[in-house]
Write a structure and sequence with these properties.
14 helices
């Protein structure tokens, strides 16, 4: 998918315009964009610590989070998320199960924000056909409804297990017991969303956490000669978030670029600004994550190889346990 995406970009835009946009980039605005990414990481760590009931220090949470993000940028299969859960699970009183469950909640909260924001941003895309706008709105409604069903299932566990077992039993090639166990792991992660106070706090943090990224995108686009409002930049954020859900190489190389470039072109931006921003922002994000991750490794006294080995051991144990009857 990464290779296909890169080829598509070269077919969509003129490489010469990309080089011109990069040469003329405003470094001060790029620095502001980097600051937005850093603030994004800080607020994410505050939200994650709240999910963990504030039982460990913010610095531990911040550094372990950054290690996970660095791993996601350089390793395949989003192993950084697993590494985060394993590392945080080794910090008492946090357990591995709690670490894994918070990964589920984070993904759901982020998806809720993106699907809720997307319909409002479509007003900026005049070239988008009406049927595509209607389809995007409909998909957002379906996604929110699906999330609502998951939360209801977390509150009605016995009913969810009964219905889940009944459905899975009708699919002959699936191991019902194994998939019911996976379903319960998912529902465990939604426990914090079943309490009103925690839900409201997490929703507040989930809105707050994305605000620096919206500005980071706008500043980055302006840096390479684009002209967009904050709402238009928000459309690019949504496009990027949805595009990186596609399986790709480490760091979402290619799929991120094609998603961002296509969104920028839909907003009427030039080839240079569209692909130039994709290149600049991805590189900025990659460099920032790697620096923060290396600082995190040093802070917790770990090495890259030791974290990889610990994560691999966990993955092997998990695979063996799933194979056992």
């Amino acid at each position: 998918m990464s290779i296909i995406s890169i080829i598509l970009i070269l077919l969509l835009v003129d490489p010469g315009e990309i080089l011109i946009a990069l040469q003329q980039a405003d470094l001060s605005l790029i620095a502001l964009s980097a600051g937005g990414i850093l603030l994004f990481m800080v607020i994410r760590s505050i939200r994650w610590r709240y999910m963990l009931a504030n039982e460990i220090s913010w610095s531990q949470v911040f550094h372990i989070q950054n290690i996970g993000y660095m791993f996601n940028m350089v390793l395949p299969l989003r192993l950084g998320d697993v590494a985060r859960a394993v590392l945080i699970g080794n910090v008492p009183p946090i357990t591995l199960a709690r670490g894994l469950s918070t990964m589920v909640v984070e993904r759901i909260l982020d998806m809720m924000f993106v699907v809720a924001l997307l319909p409002f941003t479509l007003t900026e895309v005049a070239s988008l056909p009406a049927w595509m706008q209607d389809g995007a709105r409909a998909s957002g409604i379906v996604a929110v409804a699906a999330i609502g069903l998951l939360i209801i299932a977390a509150n009605q566990r016995k009913l969810a297990n009964r219905w889940g077992t009944a459905v899975l039993n009708r699919i002959p090639f699936l191991d019902t017991e194994q998939w019911v166990r996976r379903m319960n792991d998912l529902l465990d992660g939604l426990g914090s969303l079943t309490r009103l106070k925690d839900s409201l706090v997490l929703v507040f943090f989930s809105i707050l956490v994305w605000i620096p990224i919206l500005f980071a995108y706008q500043w980055g686009i302006l840096a390479v000669g684009g002209q967009v409002s904050l709402l238009a930049a928000s459309f690019v954020v949504c496009a990027a978030a949805l595009s990186i859900a596609i399986p790709s190489s480490p760091g979402q190389i290619g799929v991120f670029h094609i998603g961002v470039t296509a969104a920028m072109l839909a907003l009427g931006q030039s080839d240079g600004a569209a692909a130039g921003f994709a290149v600049v922002y991805h590189a900025l994000n990659l460099i920032t994550m790697i620096i923060l991750g290396l600082i995190g490794l040093s802070s917790i006294g770990a090495t890259f190889n030791s974290v990889v080995e610990t994560t691999q051991r966990f993955m092997r144990r998990r695979q063996l346990s799933e194979k056992q009857p």
